[in-house]
Fold these 4 entries.
Entry 1:
Amino acid sequence: MITDYLDESLIWLQREYHNRDQLFYDCAEKLYKEGFVEKDYYHALTKRENEFPTGLDMEEYAVAIPHANPDVIKKDFIVALTLKKPVKMRKMDDASTEVDVKTFFLLGLKESNSHLVVLREFINMIQCKEVIDIIEKTNSTAAIVEVIEEYCNKEDKN
């Protein structure tokens, strides 16, 4: 299911942002210009993240899976985004604590069933340190597609 929404044009590598809001704003602008989201996506994404943080501390690394409510999504998408330097995100399981995140997967799915399935797949995938190591270290969008496809194909067989 993840691979259904994965597109190399939405894999943005080794970016630099000072904070979460700058990252969200830049992503929102790009997604809006490409016709994936409504103009108010940035506000919806920020509001959702403030209410329900998505930072996941995996002990050796951290990942975030931000998403907005489906009413601001025009076309389904997944953005894979890596940073040169981490930004602070509030933890999903303890909003009073922040975690330094370098790997983001922004989900934009209109249908809630698809959203839940993809979210579950991401939760499983990000627990695989080898996959995240490749994603964080590569400068190749094709390599990210390949590692995610390989992981998903392996999981489908299990």
Entry 2:
Amino acid sequence: MKKVLTILSLLIGLVSLSACSGSDEIIGTWNAQAADGTELVIEIDKKQLTVDGEKLDYVQNGFGFENSLSYYTIEVDEQETYTIIFPEKDKSLALLIQPTDLEEPLAGTLVFALNKNEKPNYLEYGNKYLK
């Protein structure tokens, strides 16, 4: 019984640690476009993201599936919450939104259109994937 409790405690600790760092789907180099047409590169690793040369700490604090979309929520510098939405099975295309309500992670303002392979188009992605 003591051995089972020890193993259970270790598993809970590992799940807690992995929940804080970024999932493989969001990690990588992303081409991004903002609403004003500005193009930039966003680098995301397990604990930090770099936007236009500025390094920011983040924790992944949620994930889910809804209406055939998969998504991850992140909190940046313990201040702002964002949702990274994957609207297709291809995980090289994503939308980064700032939710207007933390209880509704898929509703909010589109901040960046993201793509790992090519330059994304903010208006095209917004019109196609956000309704």
Entry 3:
Amino acid sequence: MDEMEALCSRIAILSGGRVRALGTAAGLRAAHAHGHAVVFKVTNALSTDEVDGAKQQLDRLKGKLQETFNCSLKDEHKTMLHYHINDTMRYSELFTELEALRTEFPNLIEDYSVTETTLEEVFLSFAKEQQAINQTV
């Protein structure tokens, strides 16, 4: 997808044998992207320690994220949690909420990063829609 963005001035997304979207990479992201990706880096000591308190604290963080945002957990590793926030929010609101979480869980959240929805995620959302249509037919 990175090569496509670098080399192409217009991009078409085909799904089910039809052109579903056409435009520039930025235009497609703006028109079809929803939400943000957030990756949390959690402390290694808590993630590898099997103490009940550490696991409970991680579960509390996950619950708080679900409560605060309309989000879904996409991937989880020892020291990383990758969430997708489904709602489009202002960056000021998003970072305010994330900093509040960081303050509430100072021994758990080491760092976090926020990215916009990528062109690949836009493409995959069209593919997922087509797959759902194919399953109902």
Entry 4:
Amino acid sequence: MMSQPTTTQVNGGANLAGENARSTANRVAHSAAEATQDCAEYYVSEPAKDLFGLAKDYAKEKPDVAAMWAFGLGVIVGWKLKP
């Protein structure tokens, strides 16, 4: 004759499965967060480096135009920031 599992045995197995699932979900979420942060750092820092490099190259080629842009931007920012 087969014995029926008790409710403690059934619930204990469910709790163990739930803990394993939770642990796996946490591990996957942590890995995804790390990968996303690495990608975000790359896609924010690299374009910024490229833009600064382009601005430096432009300033070397046309220093008078770059100086006028810097002066104009300085005037506008100073005008907007004055109290």
